[in-house]
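Exam revision sheet. Question 4 asks you to relate a sequence to its structure. Input first:
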Amino acid sequence: MSESAAAKRPLWIVVVALLLASVALWGASGLTWIDVPRGLTVDGRLSEDLSGSDLMTWPVPLALLALASVAGVLGGRGVVRRILGVLLVVVGAVILYLALNGDAYDVAWSGWAPGYDDTAGVPEHTFWGPAVAVAGGVLVLLAGALLTWRGHRMPRMGAKYSAPGGRRAEKHTETDLWDALSDGEDPTTRS
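Answer key, structure tokens:
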């Protein structure tokens, strides 16, 4: 394997981990976190199964943070990448805490609606909603740790991605430009 490919591998691992974390957190917001038996009420209203977005507000914003971090990883350099890595480690730990702490998404049940049998069961926490959120948290945490550890060695965007104003243009006098036009050349394409 070439040296440049080996140097790029940690960068792509971080980028892919952040993209997968973003998808996982976004998906966790739509998955069922609590199975609600038919006829159970919450605040006097009949309730159906509760998804992550019904219970909490954090999965989607943190998914967007993971997605935006990809741009920071690709565009940042040395110290900026390390700071972003530390931030991602903290965010990953917070995601794990929020997803694993069942008290964070408990709901106050009002009781059973009239006409429904209360022997249907009790609300149950599901496995997949929190598990997908935990997977997203682990991916964010691992991406942050790798970025903190190896971020300063990862390749960064080169000069070909810099703004055209950043390059030095040759200085031409006004006479040179007019002469080029007279000769049938386009003076703006000269280097």
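Marking note for examiners. DSSP finds six helices and six strands in the chain.
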